[in-house]
What does this fold into?
Amino acid sequence: MIDAIEERFSIRRFESRPVEREKLIKCVEAARLAPSAENVQPWRFIIIDDDDIKEAFGREVFSGIYRATRWAIKAPVIVVLLADLNFIAHRMAKLFTGIPYYLLDIGIAGEHFVLQAQDLGLGTCWIGWFDVKKAHRFFKLPKKIRVCELMAVGYPEPGMSLKRRKRKSIEEILFFNSWRD
It folds into this structure.
């Protein structure tokens, strides 16, 4: 597992070849097995692998101030990560703690997805910079469904250099029994 975590990095340039649906289903299966608050499993996925739909979707959600993310239209697949907000557990938890638990649940499921993709030889990139309202309207989603994230998926372009970003040391992020500055 640590190898997949260490080797995984965000991919923004992909080969043009399509991604096999069987692999995408395996990624969603990994996400489906993620834990969630009160086991409500709020995640839903729309996989966009049709070039015409992907182009139309991209023109909508990557327009205006979101133009910097247009590169994602060239990915063979865009995954739309959704949350079903129709669960009392999430509404009550946010009311009492202020924490939107559905976002934690979607994050866990999404990370299961990307690690499975890594294991299958696929590259991924989480995308948070897009027009959420236009994404919602594009698919005519009901109010109870929230668009949380997008993810570009495909085979990494050959020859991409692995540009490792410097990570903080364990001493900078780990505390036992108390906080320190």
